[in-house]
């Protein structure tokens, strides 16, 4: 129960910080387009802060269902715990979406409605092949990092800093292309909230298959690569 509470709090803080910061930056600081490195930086910070907090207080920092799936496949957590983590991640993402609405709703009447403040929006929504590829690559790197962390003898906060820095770099590269989900919960829950709260026609549900299946496939490939890599390393 303690781990699930940490998952919920961490997911809420991560998405609230990331999405609200996105709103503020897009509306007030860079209304004509923000730099990709700014996007990577504030999402990296949004991941780092809750990761440090929940790892310290709850011993967990998994806010991504594909990471939870990876841990379950590797027998690091029980399958029932994985299901509980996914549920709490969904609830945290929904509450974060409510927070975003509360922060910028008073400007909604005078500003254009933008799905990008909730879900991921690619540069070219019709280029599914390219977007799908990058979602797979980004998630693959995240999962490989997660797997390799178990073999690294370092303090937990060093591992957390490294993982957040890696996320910052990946997001900086991929965000201008796909919006950089790498996390089905991060995209689908805010997208569903946007669809139910504002306008279903603007929700781009046809594209949602990319940030849903891309991370899942990337996670599977990451697990396979890590197993093969570990086999050859330990064999040698």
From TrEMBL:
<feature type="transmembrane region" description="Helical">
    <location>
        <begin position="41"/>
        <end position="59"/>
    </location>
</feature>
<comment type="similarity">
    <text>Belongs to the MIP/aquaporin (TC 1.A.8) family.</text>
</comment>
<protein>
    <submittedName>
        <fullName>Aquaporin</fullName>
    </submittedName>
</protein>
<keyword id="KW-0472">Membrane</keyword>
<feature type="transmembrane region" description="Helical">
    <location>
        <begin position="165"/>
        <end position="185"/>
    </location>
</feature>
<keyword id="KW-0813">Transport</keyword>
<dbReference type="InterPro" id="IPR023271">
    <property type="entry name" value="Aquaporin-like"/>
</dbReference>
<keyword id="KW-0812">Transmembrane</keyword>
<keyword id="KW-1133">Transmembrane helix</keyword>
<dbReference type="Pfam" id="PF00230">
    <property type="entry name" value="MIP"/>
</dbReference>
<feature type="transmembrane region" description="Helical">
    <location>
        <begin position="12"/>
        <end position="29"/>
    </location>
</feature>
<feature type="transmembrane region" description="Helical">
    <location>
        <begin position="79"/>
        <end position="100"/>
    </location>
</feature>
<feature type="transmembrane region" description="Helical">
    <location>
        <begin position="205"/>
        <end position="234"/>
    </location>
</feature>
<dbReference type="InterPro" id="IPR050363">
    <property type="entry name" value="MIP/Aquaporin"/>
</dbReference>
<dbReference type="InterPro" id="IPR000425">
    <property type="entry name" value="MIP"/>
</dbReference>
């Amino acid at each position: 129960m303690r781990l699930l509470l940490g998952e919920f709090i961490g997911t809420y803080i991560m998405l609230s910080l990331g999405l609200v910061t996105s709103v503020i930056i897009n509306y007030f600081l860079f209304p004509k387009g923000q730099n990709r490195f700014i996007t990577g930086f504030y999402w990296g910070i949004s991941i780092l802060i809750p990761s440090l907090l929940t790892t310290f207080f709850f011993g967990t920092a998994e806010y991504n269902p594909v990471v939870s799936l990876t841990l379950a496949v590797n027998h690091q957590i029980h399958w029932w715990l994985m299901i509980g983590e996914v549920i709490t991640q969904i609830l945290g993402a929904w509450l974060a979406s409510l927070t975003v609405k509360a922060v910028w709703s008073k400007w909604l009447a005078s500003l254009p409605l933008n799905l990008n403040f909730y879900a991921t929006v690619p540069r070219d929504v019709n280029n599914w092949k390219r977007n799908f590829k990058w979602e797979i690559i980004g998630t693959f790197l995240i999962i490989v990092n997660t797997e390799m962390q178990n073999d690294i003898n370092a303090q937990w906060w060093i591992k957390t800093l490294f993982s957040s820095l890696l996320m910052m770099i990946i997001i900086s590269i991929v965000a201008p292309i796909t919006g950089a989900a790498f996390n089905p919960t991060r995209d689908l829950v805010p997208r569903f909230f946007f669809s139910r709260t504002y306008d279903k026609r603007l929700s781009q549900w046809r594209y949602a298959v990319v940030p849903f299946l891309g991370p899942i496939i990337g996670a599977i490939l990451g697990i396979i690569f890590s197993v093969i890599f570990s086999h050859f390393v330990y064999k040698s």
